[in-house]
Specification:
Structural class: alpha/beta
Number of strands: 10
Strand content: 15-25%
CATH architecture: 3-Layer(aba) Sandwich
Largest sheet: 8 strands, mixed
CATH class: Alpha Beta
Order of helices and strands: HEEEEEHEHEHEHHHHEHEHH
CATH superfamily: Alpha/Beta hydrolase fold, catalytic domain
Length: 315
């Protein structure tokens, strides 16, 4: 999840600190792959896999597609799209530890890079051959990192309303280093908020990040069920991770799909400028703007999003 609307000076920092904390996307915990059959789809389960960073549910049969949710989100954010794809694809629905009720046991340790390593381990354990990887927000960042670090293991990547360096939304002068105090502040906000205040913040954030009422409700439920330490660790990593220096050397095809909404979301011109500049060094990147949508494009514009996914997978 994108964790903030992309306009509004001081309000932008407050939204970033709270919204990214609550809605972006465990030592000793063993998580097994769960295989569930989808309607009209032949189930083909991958090899057993155990991780304390993520679990994976598999539906469908065909070419492999990995779906990664964003900050604070459940894999259920992908459910409608996964079931649509299941008759023609084997879909791997990732759930990140610490979010939406999944246990977390890593304290304030690193979040994002260990997820990337766990995704690679899953690809190996499941015997996947260069799967397509689609990630939303923080999940999109992790997908790009996976392709940067292991280009021979990923077939193609789609980042959904995700940036190579989220803190660049504060301005071109921002670096990973000078974003660190704000990242620490965002983490502290998550850890120190009382339950009622935290819920109120999530409700306000959800209204700015998605138009669809059902998804707004689900977003609040997912964030309230998430582990605060996991969220704090994740927000620190997201706000200080800049993968732009590695874009120029990438060979994996990347599609960057982003939202614009003239009615309370990001204006099209601002969104175009941000995504064009952020992905400028990535050879051959495909940039696609989806209008009349906020951060959760798959919920706000499901038909348009499905068409884009089909083109991406067929390309």
């Amino acid at each position: 999840m994108m964790f903030m609307s992309r306009h509004g000076g001081g309000r932008r920092l407050r939204a970033f600190a709270l919204a990214s904390a609550v809605l972006l996307g465990a030592g000793g915990l063993t998580l097994a792959v769960r295989a569930e059959a989808a309607p009209a789809a032949v189930q083909s389960a991958p090899a057993p896999f155990a991780s304390d960073r993520l679990s994976v549910e598999v539906i469908g049969s065909g070419p492999d597609v990995i779906l990664i949710p964003g900050f604070g989100s459940s894999r259920e954010v992908w459910r409608a799209e996964a079931e649509r794809l299941a008759p023609t694809h084997r879909v791997h629905l990732v759930q990140l530890a610490g979010f939406a009720g999944e246990p977390w046991s890593h304290g304030d340790g690193a979040f994002v890079q260990p997820v990337v390593e766990a995704l690679l381990a899953y690809i190996d354990a499941a015997g996947l051959e260069r799967p397509a990887v689609i990630g939303h927000s923080m999940g999109g960042l992790e997908a790009v990192m996976l392709a940067q670090q292991h280009p021979d293991r990923v077939g193609r990547v789609m980042s959904v309303d995700s940036l190579p360096f989220f803190s660049a939304m504060f301005g071109p002068q921002v670096t990973s280093e000078n974003a660190r105090p704000f990242a620490d502040q965002a983490a502290a906000t998550i850890l120190n908020a009382d339950e009622a205040g935290f819920r109120t913040g999530q409700e306000q954030t959800a209204a700015g990040l998605v138009r669809d009422p059902a998804t707004r409700t689900a977003m609040v439920d997912w964030s309230m069920a998430s582990d605060r330490q996991a969220m704090a660790a994740a927000i620190r990593d997201v706000m200080t991770t800049d993968v732009r220096p590695g874009l120029a050397a990438m060979t994996t095809p990347v599609w960057a799909v982003y939202a614009a909404d003239a009615d309370g979301g990001s204006p099209a011109a601002l969104a175009d400028s941000m995504w064009t500049s952020q992905y400028a060094d990535l050879p051959g990147v495909t940039l696609i703007r989806v209008d009349d949508s906020r951060h959760f494009i798959m919920a706000d514009q499901p038909a348009r999003f499905a068409t884009i996914v089909d083109r991406f997978l067929a390309d």
